[in-house]
Design brief:
Layout: H1 2-5, H2 10-22, H3 28-48, H4 108-121, H5 130-138, H6 147-159
Amino acid sequence: MLTHRFPDNSTALDATLAAALAIEPAGPARERALAFGKAISEALIMRREEDGANKAGESRASTASGQWRPTPRDLLPALDLQWATLVPFVLTTPQQFRPAGPPALSSAAYRQARATVATLGGAHSTVRTAEQTEIAHYWSDAIGTYAPAGHWNAIAASIVAPM
């Protein structure tokens, strides 16, 4: 499965598998486990082949109020636009657990939220604490960082007991 998803890493992945198998006793049980794993991997690859992960997404960048737009400094385009229409892996629908949308642009709740963001998020904020700044940098998910999935994988890895 991993070599299908990350073909450029197949040499390292194959070596890791070989090292793991080297400490397992040879025999019918190991062969059944390998065959089962391969069957699951192939079924999963086939099931996800048309999920939309590799389709080009449609950009919705706009300068209109309340719409996404590239942010300074680099003004890079949005990443992975196709994920908004991806066929869910486990969910019934992509909207199954979608939270309510943001407040209306003309509402008091929106004005208050915008003021809070401006106060705390300003480059030279005098209200934001050092800890909040550190947290913001950690979760910034800028290109070249873990990005959200990597953060959660690192968090999970830090709490799973080594075997």
